Amino acid sequence: MQPERLLKKHNLRKTSGRLSVLRCFLEYGKALSHGEVQDLVGKKVDRVTLYRILQSFEEKGLLHKVPDDQVSVKYALCDHLHNVDHAHSDNHAHFKCNSCGDTVCLEESAIPNIPTPKGFRVNESFLLLGGLCDQCVR
Amino acid sequence: MQPERLLKKHNLRKTSGRLSVLRCFLEYGKALSHGEVQDLVGKKVDRVTLYRILQSFEEKGLLHKVPDDQVSVKYALCDHLHNVDHAHSDNHAHFKCNSCGDTVCLEESAIPNIPTPKGFRVNESFLLLGGLCDQCVR
DNA sequence: TACTAAAATGCAACAATGTTACAAAAATGA
DNA sequence: TCATTTTTGTAACATTGTTGCATTTTAGTA
């Protein structure tokens, strides 16, 4: 789907900054950190604006947060860009390659249920696998 | 086990800073972030020194990192303070309460195997559950 | 097309977090 | 007690993320 339509569908005004950022994600296909997006879009988009763009994309269900080596955050396109309902879960695992640094969504892998102590209520779960991707494994 | 012995066992010199920090973890029993430890030990321990203490504890297998709401890191005592082998995994899930902010280790819950694409090698995994703990659930 | 209200942007300033270099101090073993 | 090695404190700096505010841009409407 074209970036313009995606923005509209998610109730986001069309701006050049947002289009640039969205194109990065559509083209790159992997999770990107704020810094990585910044490098891709260059100084066409202000640093603060970029934070706000990523934030708005997340609020509107266009991106979801991905834990990155337990220290920082990346963003990835949501699974269901086809439906506008953004009370979604994106409840899948992520894999980060420790060699090339790429982070990919393991869409097929729903995070399994984990038993918790009595009385605990689980609302969300984040699962990050680390290792080597097929490109870096040899 | 006494803090002094723990340090010795893990090849860490006994210093007042390290003892203070270690006592925090032994007494508190939950995962602590750098800032939380800093609050607990006060200005008896310098900020930079505290970073280094946490780092040395992790290197020597006394603490392990715990992902904290995908943005920052906490530290928790390792499962096996009894053996000195620190090529350990601490391969269990963690639970963070979104109300009180406490993070606990779910020692019993080994992280299940997640299928990955062909050619990927998984070396480590981090699983963080978010929700309400038994104290905050009502 | 021109106008208006609402939203988004850029900028400056700031806060929090984390790192490095280096000299001074403390801990260990002989 | 001494010598060596490790640890510490300090300062300086880099990175990351946030807030306030004036300006610009967008989208809808006349």
Characteristics of this structure?
Arc Repressor Mutant, subunit A, 29% strand, DNA-binding, 30% helix, three-stranded antiparallel beta sheet, homodimer
Structure write-up:
- The structure is a homodimer of 138-residue chains.
- The longest helix of chain A is centred in the N-terminal third of the chain and has 13 residues, at 16-28.
- In chain A, the strands form two sheets. In chain A, strands 1-3-2 form a three-stranded antiparallel sheet.
- Chain A is globular, with a radius of gyration of 16 Å.
- Helix content of chain A is 30%, strand content 29%.
- With 138 residues, chain A is an alpha+beta fold.
- Chain A has helices at 3-9, 16-28, 34-41, 47-59, and strands at 32-33, 63-68, 72-77, 92-97, 103-110, 121-132.
- Chain A has one domain (3-137): Winged helix-like DNA-binding domain superfamily/Winged helix DNA-binding domain (Arc Repressor Mutant, subunit A), CATH 1.10.10.
- At the A-B interface, strand 2, strand 5 and strand 6 of A face strand 2, strand 5 and strand 6 of B.
- Strand 6 of chain A pairs antiparallel with strand 6 (121-132) of chain B.
- The first copy, chain A, binds a DNA duplex (30 and 30 nucleotides) through residues 13-15, 17-18, 34-35, 45-49, 51-53, 56, 72.
